[in-house]
Amino acid sequence: MTLRIAVFGENRHEKVDQRVQEIYPEGMHTVIAEALRRLLAADGVEAEVRIALLDDIEESLSEEALAETDVLTWWGHMAHDDVPDEIADRVVRRVHEGMGLVPLHSAHYSKPFTRLMGTTCNLLWRNEGEEERVWTVNGSHPIARGVPHPIIVPEQEMYGEMFDIPAPDELVFVSSFAGGEVFRSGAAFRRGKGKIFYFSPGDQEYPVYHQAEIQRVLANAVQWARPEDRPAQPVRIANAQRDWFRGEESVRAI
């Protein structure tokens, strides 16, 4: 079955910041999408990868578009408040129904992620272009497949603990920085029928998404987060008549 992926990009820094334009002349979203197409094809995974931008969010993340999306990656930073609440809630509903979500870097503050976590998602940060080492702490996890231990990111914005998120269902990566901080940089969650994988490396001022190791993590993440083979619908509320489970209705209610 074809894996249908939407790569959401805020696409704001790329328009106003010359440094970002030099690193990502076609946008971070384009680099991410092209890497996913290439690596998923190499993995033998049939996939359709489309790009969704903040400028066309009403269309690219409409009810109909999200209904046809298996996994949504999300990069945002300077325009979280420009995402309409209705669309953020729509994404949350789709995650509960089974769609996978892969928030990247500053998307820890995105509306969908904070709603799904139920916490502030606050953290420490310092942007001095320090080295980041991404350590695998769960080598048997599918997202860690083929990933070096550690991944060395030569320059990156520091994210550090405390990171105000719920305890992850699975912790895959922990990062350390030249300044001594550590950070839960690869954390997996389940919400309803959907899977979420937050991955922090990827500040706009550094060519992190050009790194092959980072691209491998993203390709692994969208494969892990794809919906499981079960109905993509919420659990319903119903008036349960006595002995309802003895007949055909019991099958339809699951």
UniProtKB/TrEMBL annotation:
Domain ThuA-like: 24-225
Organism encoding this protein: Brachybacterium aquaticum
UniProt xrefs under SUPFAM superfamilies: Class I glutamine amidotransferase-like
Name of the protein in question: Trehalose utilization protein
Top-level taxonomy: Bacteria, Bacillati, Actinomycetota, Actinomycetes, Micrococcales
Coiled-coil blocks: none
